């Protein structure tokens, strides 16, 4: 039984142990504090100056990470709350991402920017966002997100193998959940790096949900209720790579597809997934792909108001039922 | 306006042939670019360093092969003083075969060996700090050229703070030419660069000379300290931009442009050593003419394969 935050922490320990060229930088990442979410606990005690607590300078932290990468090392940068990655937008999009191709030949920039992300913790408008959508479609930049089904160590290795900057989102509520656990009704398997969560022996599902790591448990809650109360069978696909959108397995038989995204609506990851799927599924779809997003508004601090804005299990359930009606 | 000591009419130190070659290569290269623009042969934009050539030429002898150099939008001189490859640079600017970066980067985005330029103000300083963090203790340093206008960017302060805290070998070369595009320094900078460096506990050295030998003599021990301690250093040059910001966009009053011309190294070195100067001046002018002819005749470039 391992919590997701402990699992990522162990992956960072293993990575820094096996690869002395890896550096880790971020605000308050050093011991004894070990990061705002304790994901970097024990690293500075063990790896010394390769782990650095930095000044409050997200732009320069990302830039220093890119510099270390340019000089032949590898860097993991932690942005304490993903909302703050806006402060590093220039370094990430104009420098790190563009550098992989703007010099006329491939330039490796092994840089991973870790972004604790998402709401449902009452932190309010500037500490709760899912800003993934602002980084979609940036040449040279890849987006990943932690899920309860993917080994974090393998994801770090994969991101570094790409040799281009990657944003790695880690949902703050997911940190507290267990790895490799689903609802007792469902099983999961990895198909081409995409987690498939399904009802054993159920055959063709009524609806296939597609979501990112932070929404897995809300999606599972919705799937449980849909099964028990509405007699609808759902399957769930969870890619760890968000962008470029990977090949999503098994959708050819889908009766209905619903993409669930905790980012605000408008120019969203969900829309990007749907755009990738329409040409492939056109002619087989019986109805438009349903997109579920957080509301077009800031994320309030008060829990009852926050709940209304973010995607919840009941809003997923309602969207699936409406899509199938 | 920028305060500059009146330049000595006669340079105190004789120039090596190599330095004079480098100065004049850059001068004729930049002049050629403005001519090519007038002829409508170049696309996009360019920023020439006319008048500021002596800054990278003076520094080039203080830099080692394993140093990393970061340059900016006004970077042709920085490049040519380190890598005398006018063919590759012009091919890059013109998008012709043999281009340093396949024609993708153009004038402002060059990556060649350990020389890298990028076009967003201040963006390079955090990256240079990261490179310097890696180089610390090896004796090598990261050198970043910025301008006076760059000090408006927050990235500069974030980087200086880290460079000072972490004691990294970062040499920040400020080409303070008194004007940011069209805005005089007096209208865009409160206080001074020296005081800003001091606020971060970073050494600052002000250079008013345009004499390559004199500048080197003063900077050599300071640059050695950057490597040995290691520690960051800001070297601020009081310099002058003779030409426009880019091309044909000079709105300065004529007397100001005249003042800038009076501080130019070109006439002074010509007077100090007329025969040798004339010989090398002609040699470099003709070299650039040949480079322009050769590169102009080449086919268009394509981005290449692996680094």
TrEMBL record, chain A:
Look up the record and name the cofactor or cofactors this protein needs. Answer: thiamine diphosphate
SMART domains found in the cross-reference section: Transket_pyr
Q: Which domain of life is it from?
A: Bacteria
Q: Which InterPro entries match?
A: THDP-binding, Transketo_C/PFOR_II, Transketolase-like_Pyr-bd, Transketolase_C
Q: Which residues form the Transketolase-like pyrimidine-binding domain?
A: 2-177
**Which keywords does UniProt give here?**
Oxidoreductase, Pyruvate, Thiamine pyrophosphate
What is the protein named?
Pyruvate dehydrogenase
From TrEMBL, chain B:
Q: Looking at the record, which segments are called Disordered? A: 241-262
Domain of life of the organism encoding this protein: Bacteria
Swiss-Prot/TrEMBL keywords:
Oxidoreductase, Thiamine pyrophosphate
Name any one Pfam family assigned in the record: E1_dh
Asked if the record carries the keyword Oxidoreductase, the reply is yes
Q: Which InterPro entries match?
A: DH_E1 (IPR001017), PDH_E1_Alpha_Subunit (IPR050642), THDP-binding (IPR029061)
Comp. bias intervals (Basic and acidic residues): 246-262
Required cofactor names: thiamine diphosphate
Position of the signal peptide: none
The UniProt record lists the Dehydrogenase E1 component domain at 24-272
Name the UniProt record assigns to this protein: Dehydrogenase
* Lineage per the UniProt record: Bacteria, Bacillati, Actinomycetota, Actinomycetes, Streptosporangiales
């Amino acid at each position: 039984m391992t919590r997701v935050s402990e699992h990522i922490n162990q992956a960072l320990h293993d990575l820094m142990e096996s690869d002395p060229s890896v550096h880790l930088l971020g605000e308050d990442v050093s011991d004894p504090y070990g990061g705002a979410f304790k994901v970097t606990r024990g690293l500075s005690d063990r790896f010394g100056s390769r782990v650095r607590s930095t000044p409050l300078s997200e732009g320069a932290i990302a830039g220093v990470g890119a510099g270390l990468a340019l000089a032949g090392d590898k860097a993991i940068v932690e942005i304490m709350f993903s909302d703050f990655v806006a402060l590093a937008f220039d370094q990430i999009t104009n420098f790190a991402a563009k550098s992989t191709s703007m010099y006329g030949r491939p330039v490796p920039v092994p840089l991973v920017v870790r972004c604790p992300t998402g709401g449902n913790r009452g932190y309010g408008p500037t500490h709760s966002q899912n800003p993934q959508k602002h980084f979609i479609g940036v040449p040279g930049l890849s987006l990943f997100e932690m899920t309860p089904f993917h080994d974090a160590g393998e994801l770090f290795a994969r991101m570094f193998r790409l040799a281009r900057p990657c944003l790695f989102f880690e949902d703050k509520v997911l940190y507290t959940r267990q790895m490799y656990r689903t609802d007792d009704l469902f099983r999961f398997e990895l198909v081409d790096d995409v987690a498939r969560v399904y009802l054993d022996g159920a055959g063709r599902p009524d609806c296939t949900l597609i979501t990112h790591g932070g929404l897995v448990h809300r999606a599972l809650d919705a799937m449980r209720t849909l099964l028990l109360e509405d007699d609808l069978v759902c399957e769930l696909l969870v890619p760890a790579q968000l962008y470029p959108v990977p090949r999503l397995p098994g959708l050819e038989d889908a009766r209905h597809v619903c993409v669930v995204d905790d980012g605000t609506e408008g120019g969203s990851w969900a829309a990007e997934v749907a755009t990738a799927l329409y040409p492939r599924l056109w002619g087989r779809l019986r109805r438009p792909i349903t997109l579920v997003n957080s509301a077009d508004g800031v994320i309030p601090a008060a829990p009852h108001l926050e709940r209304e804005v973010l995607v919840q299990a009941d809003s997923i359930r309602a969207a699936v039922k409406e899509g199938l009606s | 306006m920028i305060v500059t000591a009146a330049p000595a009419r006669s340079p105190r130190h004789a120039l090596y042939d190599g330095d004079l070659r480098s100065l004049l290569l850059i001068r004729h290269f930049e002049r050629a670019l403005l001519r090519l623009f007038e002829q409508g042969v170049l696309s996009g934009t360019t920023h020439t360093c006319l008048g500021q050539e002596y800054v990278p030429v003076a520094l080039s002898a203080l830099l080692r092969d394993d140093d990393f150099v970061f340059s900016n939008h006004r970077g042709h001189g920085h490049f040519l003083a380190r890598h005398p490859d006018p063919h590759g640079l012009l091919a890059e600017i013109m998008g012709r075969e043999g281009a340093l970066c396949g024609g993708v980067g153009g004038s402002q985005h060059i990556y060649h060996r350990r020389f890298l330029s990028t076009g967003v103000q201040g963006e390079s300083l955090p990256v240079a700090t990261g490179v310097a963090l890696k180089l610390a203790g090896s004796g090598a340093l990261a050198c970043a050229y910025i301008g006076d206008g760059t000090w408006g960017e927050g990235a500069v302060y974030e980087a200086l703070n880290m460079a000072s805290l972490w004691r990294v070998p970062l040499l920040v070369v400020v080409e303070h030419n008194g004007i940011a595009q069209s805005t005089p320094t007096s209208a865009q900078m409160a206080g001074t660069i020296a005081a800003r460096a001091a606020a971060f506990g970073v050494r600052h050295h002000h250079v008013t000379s345009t004499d390559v030998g004199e500048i080197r003599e003063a900077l050599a021990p300071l640059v050695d300290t950057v490597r040995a301690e290691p520690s960051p250093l800001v070297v601020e040059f009081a310099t002058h931009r003779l030409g426009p910001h880019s091309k044909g966009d000079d709105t300065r009053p004529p007397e100001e442009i005249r003042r800038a011309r009076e501080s130019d190294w070109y006439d002074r070195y010509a007077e100090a050593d007329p025969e040798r100067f004339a010989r090398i001046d002609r040699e470099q002018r003709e070299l650039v003419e040949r480079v322009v002819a050769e590169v102009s005749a080449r086919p268009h470039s394509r981005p290449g394969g692996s680094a």
